[in-house]
Amino acid sequence: MDYCQWLNNSFKDELPSGLVLRLPTEAEWEKAARGTGANAWPWGNESDTIKCNSDESGQGGTTPVGRYSPRGDSPYGCADMAGNVWEWTHSLRKPYPYQSNDGREDKNSSGRRVLRGGSFGMSMSMVRCAVRAVPSLLYDTVGFRVVASPNLS
């Protein structure tokens, strides 16, 4: 979130009015990954090791963004939503169902933020769109994506 703040300060004159750069909420991340059909994986409901960087792909490490595009992209054209690295979201870990007004999107609250997407070291069952994790010492393969969106109130 500090990096996003730095980006916003650095590019404030270039951003369209009303938009900021920030981490996606957990709900935004999942929607971008699943599409409207609630896919198990970004590309659909069938496991396919040639569409993402999971343990079964045999890469053994991260790969460049877009290596599995377009075959592994989500319905919205988002690349690498499954595998490669776990991705930070803005959301604090709270139970489902998702409630945007339960404090999970309070940027000033402390607590563990949710990771989504799995990593190159996880099996295909763990890089599904629905899998959620919280940071621990086990997740040394964490990254993030930035969205341009209205600020969270």
CATH class: Alpha Beta
Mean pLDDT: 92
Percent range for β-strand residues: 5-15%
Count structural domains. 1
Radius of gyration: 15 Å
Compute the separation of the termini in Å.
15 Å
Shape: globular
CATH architecture: Alpha-Beta Complex
User: What ranges have pLDDT less than 50 throughout 5 or more consecutive residues?
Assistant: none
Largest sheet: 4 strands, mixed
* Helical amount: 10-25%
At the fourth CATH level, what is the homologous superfamily?
Answer: paralog of FGE (formylglycine-generating enzyme)
Order of helices and strands: HEHEEEEE
* Structural category: alpha+beta
* Biggest sheet, spatial arrangement of strands: 4-3-2-5
CATH fold naming: paralog of FGE (formylglycine-generating enzyme)
Q: Can you count the beta strands?
A: 6
Number of helices: 2
Please describe what this structure looks like.
The structure is a single chain. This protein has one domain: paralog of FGE (formylglycine-generating enzyme), CATH 3.90.1580.10. Helix content is 12%, strand content 14%. The strands form 2 sheets. Strands 4-3-2-5 form a 4-stranded mixed β-sheet. The radius of gyration is 15 Å and the shape is globular.
